Amino acid sequence: MDFDDQLRRFFGTDDLDTLTPAALSAGAEHMRVELGLEQDKSRRFAMWTILHTLGEAPDLDIAFKDPADRDAARNFMDLMDKSGDG
Fold first, then answer.
1. Alpha-carbon distance 55 to 35, whole Å?
2. 82: number of CA atoms within 13 Å, CB side?
3. What secondary structure does DSSP assign to 8-20, as a single string?
4. In whole angstroms, what is the distance from residue 56 CA to residue 68 CA?
5. What does DSSP assign to residue 57?
6. Could you report how far apart the first and last alpha carbons of the chain are, in Å?
7. Rounded distance, CA 36 to CA 75, Å?
8. Which residues of 42-56 are buried (b: 16+ CB within 10 A; e: fewer)?
9. CA distances from residue 14 to 37, 50, 57 in whole angstroms, order as listed
10. What is the pLDDT along the chain (86 residues), one digit of tens a residue?
11. What is the reported pLDDT for 85?
12. pTM of the prediction?
C-alpha cells in the first residue's frame, strides 16, 4: 500500500495542500467508509494512520477490535507525538 497511491485514490491528488477544505473532508469521509469495510488488518492500519495524521481517525475502540491493534495504534500516536517535539 503506497502512501501516494492512497492519497490519489481517496483525495484525487498526492498533494493535499492543493485541496479545498470540502475536498479534504470528502476524501477523509470516503477513507473512513473504506476503513469500515476493509478486512485486511495491515490495510486497515495503514488507512487509520493516514486518517490520524489528518486528524480524521475514528476512536481506537471503533477502528480496532483486537487489543494488539489498538496498542500498535497507540504506539504510532506516541511516535508521532515524539517526532513533533524536536
1. 15
2. 6
3. HHHHS-S-GGG--
4. 21
5. P
6. 28
7. 21
8. eebbbbbbbbbeeeb
9. 23, 12, 19
10. 688 899 999 999 989 999 999 999 999 999 999 999 999 999 999 999 999 999 999 999 999 999 999 999 999 999 999 987 65
11. 64
12. 0.88
Burial class (CB in 10 A: 0-12, 13-18, 19+), 11: buried
Number of domains in the chain: 1
The residue type found at 24 is L
Per the structure, the complete domain to which residue 37 belongs is given by 3-83
Q: Smallest Cα–Cα separation from 8: which of 50, 41, 64, 45?
A: 50
**How many other β-carbons are positioned within 10 Å of the β-carbon of residue 27?**
21
With cell 470528502, the residue in question is 26
| Torsion of Cα atoms, 29 then 35 then 46 then 24, to 10° | -10
